[in-house]
Structures are given as C-alpha cells and as structure tokens.
Design brief:
By secondary structure, the chain is an alpha+beta fold. The protein has 6 helices and 12 strands. The mean pLDDT is 95.
Amino acid sequence: MTIWHEVHTGVVHPWLCDQFGHLNVRQYANLFNEAMFHAYAKTGMSHGVVMKTGAHGVASIVRTTFIQELPVGNLVTTEAALIRASNKTCTFVLRMRNTETGDIHATLETLEVFFNPETRSSTPIPDALRPLIQAQLDGPDPVPDLPDMPREAPEVARWHELHRGVCFPWHCDQYGHMNVRWYAHFLDDAIFHIWSKLGTGWKEMEAHGVHTVTASTTTHFRKEIKSADLFVVESGVARCGSKSVTFRQHIKNVETGETHGYQDVVEVFFDPNTRKSTAMPAPVRAALEAELASS
C-alpha cells in the first residue's frame, strides 16, 4: 500500500512545446523533476531533513511512459507515491494528469539510491528516515501494477555520434552534479539527429506523411557528471517493430571514456493528421534494418 500526494501543478505554455505541437520530452522531465523534490518533502524527507542524516536520494533508473500528448494550454497536476524500499533504495511513482479532465498523460517511475555526499557513493538508508518511509508503505492507497524496471541492455551494432556538450554550473543541482532534467535535455537533442545519420531525415518522413513521437524513455544513471565535464552522446538502433523503433543512447566522458549513463528510447511512428500511431514507411524500415544488420 502507499499514500498518493499532489506534488506539482503546471501549464503547457507555447515555449514548452516542440515542432509537433505538444509538450516536448525534456519538459516532461522538467516538470517531473520539480515534482520529485516535492514528493520527498511530502513523505517527510525534505532536503533539510535528509541532509542532516548524511545521505540523500539520487536517481538510478528512471522510466517515463508517455500516454497521451499534451497540447498547448493544458493544465497539469502531478501526483506521487512511494511504493517500495530496500536497504539502499526506494521507488517512487508519479503520474501527470490533465487537471480539467483527470486523464493521465504520462507516468514516471524512479528507483532512487541513497547517496553519501562526502564519499560520493551509495549508502544504506539512514535509520532516522525508515519510519517516514514505512508510514508511506502502510498507507491506505493501492500500489499500481507495474512491470519490473528493465536491467538488460539491448545490443547495438552501429553507434553514431550525435551530440557533444559541457556541464556548466547552471546544469548542476544542490547535490553538486548535473541534474536529471539536463540528461533529458541533451539526450533529446541527440535523438533528433539520429534520422539524418540513418539517411532518412525529417523532411523525408514528412514527405511520407509521418514523424515519430516518444512512447517511453528508460534512463540508467551510472556515474555523476560534474561541472566542467565534457561529454559525448552516441546512439544506435536496438530494435525495430511494425510501428516503433528502440534506440539505445549513452553519455560518455570525453576525456576518460567512462559511461555516465544510458537511455533506451521507444519511438512510435505517428500520423500528424489523425494524431494516432501508424505503420513506418518501407524506406525507413529498410534503413533501420540495415543498421541492425551492421557488424
């Protein structure tokens, strides 16, 4: 069991939307990230409280599922619940609703690992926080039925460099590393470039009367990115279905080669006239299958 809390409200402004006329993936990440800080506070584990214990939560695996698009002008309300805990981790679920209709537009699941800011490594959940967590798990609300977080990495035959960046101080949060929302920002920038690398750019897809939209992202955070770190994003085709394609992306440190994180992105082909999914065009499928066959 659990307790659902209202943790955030917002509005879909025009400057949050992309060229496809709806809230962009990175802006979901922004709204969910702000909501997560309030989710901790609602459970009694606000920043001020957890820092006194010598540990705080950091995202380890985050899965976002996009259910319905959010056009400009919509009001959104985000709810959160703590649904699971172990020795070092706790799991939150968030759902973003249309304030006027009650429809769920997106959900987010995040496996949070407790982190010692002095050693910069994982640590058991402090004893002082365990009664707060248990109070949530003893709540009156049912826990949603969710599939397990994916742990297996799909194989990629050919990698393409899509983006390079630097972590500036304004990308970092109060914990001294690049905030979750900026991973979403840079990874989303990168994925727009994948189609040109495959030889089936956006203009070609427009000529076929389709484009892709993101159905889900699952991001694994492995090593924190700090201010002044240089990073590169590489992507490749991992799976190809009848209406969707899965890309694997990773963020690597330019100087050390270490992997900071990776993301699996499921893109669905979308008819902008019907606002529904559609089959992928044959030339696009051929390009994707050629990537899967590369050695």
